């Protein structure tokens, strides 16, 4: 009935979809297995992509040939570039999406890929022979063979939904939990744990009074996530902001005694950076209000997502409290918020390629590894799919360094440090933020993807090469062109910047705070005429390179220094117990993690600089 596949992906959420794409676009024959074909790429929580550091990840996925960026551009109802008041390392794209269009576009693109087949059924286990994974077992007793398997089960592994004192099995609202895989993996020696996440109520937008809220519009100059000429809408929908109040908090507190968070029914740890509304009130008792973002679910629906009001309190308490929020006085609820507990597997059990250490040819990606967020899941899926292809092709794994991508930071953190709570990416987790900007993801990663063998990257590489040449042209022009006091002093005075006393190079003026090429174009016709030949994207990229060249150079020097450690490979047969000069904790952690390089070893919690020195001396360095 079935051919033997190169890769089977279990689960069709964000990680699963990108895993299927990653393997298929490398040439693997892929089977994507899901319990429900109608919920492929479902946005289970917030219908939005991107945000701080997450937006950088989506652009990196796109630069590597993944589909998340293209799908987001097609389905977005609003685009905003966050943190524009800060430095370019912090600029992060975010888009509010049409939930139904997002899932439909993902399915359309997956079905257009001839290397991807589909199967709708619960996968209840994997087939393991001689320590190697070689297929999956289904709920009706089928066995489907494959060379590799990628598990991307999301919140479905023994998922348990909580609303007040009620609890019932489920992977998300209206869908059943997945049974069998956790139990089998535990018998194979894997360690598992429980985590928790939550989602807010959905409400009827027709019953809200937006005049009592602040309007939040999208950027006038609408950006995109994909580096291709992806399709985008021609207009945007507004979001709105409102606030809770002491009255709202008092009503919520009436349900605290029935909260599964506070009475011990939930054992799993929830996301620190996306707490429930009851957790906010409990932890920040001195605050008399919390911000709520009122976000549309799409173009053709009145359903509203109440971002900031995640809750597992009894439904009547959620309803009564929401009706005390300004603009929500006549609100009707579509469904209450809920918390969900699910199984995960500490990611220290993985190799840096996301292959498991215990079972060869088996890969984990997404929330099964203890992460939260569509973007974190998607990038893991893409990397796992690519590495599953490379594994059965008997090629070396594809590993991104911390200096090459936020994706590299995320996977390195998970594998070396593990996580005791749902892991979320932030710009602060990366040491090389100025190098890992959202605007240069294609320059960083597209040539790597092309060299790796990802399908159809040639035109993208040509585009990257053209962009690099154009940036050099702008850089050269700004460095060699001179400006006089009478050309710029009026502008400089308006900006509160010191007037020029003599002719200087344009570059020296651009290096000043609060000075930029966009404004100077209005004062300098020759500059404006020169820059008209280039896109805004290229001009901005060139300006960042000029203004921050000192910082970029220093970070690159740090990268070069660290890369020397990354190049020192540790043999998989290395016996750390023989090195008595290592601390006991270092020996224990190194034996458990089995790092590939000295650089990776240096980032393991409990491995000190002196331990790294011992390793280097032992290896003749």
Quick overview of this protein structure:
By secondary structure, the chain is α+β, with helices and mostly antiparallel strands. It contains 21 helices and 22 strands.
Low-confidence stretches: none
* Rg: 26 Å
Shape: globular
How does the major sheet shape up? 7 strands, mixed
- Count of separate DSSP helical elements: 21
Oligomeric assembly: single chain
Span between termini: 56 Å
Overall pLDDT, averaged?
A: 94
Share in helix: 25-40%
Secondary-structure-based class equals alpha+beta
Q: Could you tell me the CATH topology label of the domain at 458-552.
A: Arc Repressor Mutant, subunit A
Count the strands?
A: 22
| CATH homology group of the domain at 458-552 | tRNA uridine 5-carboxymethylaminomethyl modification enzyme MnmG/GidA
CATH structural class of the domain at 458-552: Mainly Alpha
Please tell me about this protein's structure:
The protein has 621 residues and is an alpha+beta fold. Among the domains are: 458-552, Arc Repressor Mutant, subunit A (Orthogonal Bundle); 567-618, Orthogonal Bundle (DNA polymerase, domain 1). The chain is built from 21 helices and 22 strands. The strands form 5 sheets. Strands 1, 2, 6, 7, 8, 9 and 20 form a 7-stranded mixed β-sheet that branches. The radius of gyration is 26 Å and the shape is globular.
Keywords:
six-stranded antiparallel sheet; single chain; DNA polymerase, domain 1; 621 residues; alpha+beta; seven-stranded mixed sheet; Arc Repressor Mutant, subunit A; 22 strands; 36% helix
